[in-house]
C-alpha cells in the first residue's frame, strides 16, 4: 500500500511506485486531497478519481526535474482507492496487504497517524497497518522539525513504524536530481524488503562515488 500525503516531494512517490512495479509488486494507492494540490503545483498534473489511470501514467512518466523521461510504467497492477472512501478494502485489517509506505509524509499526516486519527483513508490505513503489526514506513518530508512533530515521530517509532526522513545521500555518486530522488526511494524500498537497483550501495571503498559504476 502506498499513501501519498500533501508534503512536497511527489517525485519520491513516483519513484517508489515505479520501483514496486518493477519488482513485480501489486500496488494499492491512495492519494490524499492535499497531495493533489502539491502534485498539481510540482508537475502540472491534475489527479482525478475518474481518470486516475491516465493521470498516474503521466505522473510516473515524469522525471524528478519535471521533464518527460523514459519511464514507461504499466499501471495494470495498481489499484486506486479514493481518499474519502473509508469503506475501501484497505480500511479493514482483513484486506491482504504486506504493509504501507507513506511517501512523502507531511507533518499533518504524521500527527494524524501518531494520534490514531482516521480523517481520510490514508490515515485509516496507517492505523490499520499498525494494529495489524504490518510494516509501516513513514518518509517524512519537512524541515525544520518542531518538538511536537519530533515527539509524534518518536511515538510512531515506538508503535513499530519505520521513520525514514527523505534525506538524500551523496556517496552513491549522484549526477542528476533523479539520482537523489532514487536514493530516497531506494531506502524506502529497502525498509519494505523490496529488491531494486535504484542507487549505488556503499561497499566500503572511499571515493567510489567518483569512480566507474560496477555493473550487475
Automatic annotation (TrEMBL):
GO terms for molecular function: prenyltransferase activity. Signal peptide: none annotated. Keywords: Flavoprotein, FMN, Prenyltransferase, Transferase. Coiled coil: none annotated. InterPro entries: Flavin_trans-like, Flavoprotein, UbiX-like. NCBIfam families: ubiX_pad. This is UbiX family flavin prenyltransferase. It comes from Streptomyces triculaminicus.
Amino acid at each position: 500500500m502506498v499513501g501519498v500525503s500533501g508534503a512536497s516531494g511527489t517525485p519520491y512517490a513516483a519513484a517508489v511506485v515505479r520501483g514496486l512495479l518493477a519488482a513485480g509488486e501489486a500496488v494499492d494507492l491512495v492519494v490524499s486531497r492535499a497531495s493533489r494540490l502539491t502534485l498539481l503545483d510540482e508537475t502540472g498534473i491534475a489527479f482525478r478519481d475518474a481518470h486516475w489511470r491516465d493521470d498516474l501514467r503521466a505522473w510516473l512518466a515524469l522525471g524528478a526535474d519535471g521533464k518527460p523521461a523514459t519511464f514507461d510504467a504499466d499501471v495494470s497492477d495498481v489499484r486506486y482507492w479514493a481518499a474519502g472512501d473509508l469503506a475501501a478494502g484497505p480500511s479493514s485489517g482483513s484486506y491482504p496487504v504486506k504493509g504501507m509506505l507513506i511517501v512523502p509524509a507531511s507533518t499533518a499526516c504524521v500527527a494524524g497517524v501518531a494520534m490514531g486519527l482516521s480523517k481520510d483513508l490514508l490515515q485509516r490505513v496507517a492505523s490499520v497497518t499498525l494494529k495489524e503489526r504490518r510494516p509501516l514506513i513513514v518518509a517524512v518530508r519537512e524541515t525544520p522539525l518542531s518538538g511536537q512533530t519530533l515527539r509524534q515521530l518518536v511515538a510512531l517509532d515506538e508503535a513499530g513504524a519505520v521513520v525514514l526522513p527523505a534525506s538524500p545521500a551523496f556517496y552513491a555518486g549522484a549526477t542528476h536530481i533523479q539520482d537523489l530522488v532514487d536514493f530516497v526511494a531506494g531506502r524506502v524500498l529497502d525498509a519494505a524488503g523490496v529488491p531494486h537497483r535504484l542507487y549505488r550501495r556503499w561497499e566500503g571503498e572511499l571515493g567510489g562515488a567518483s569512480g566507474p559504476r560496477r555493473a550487475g
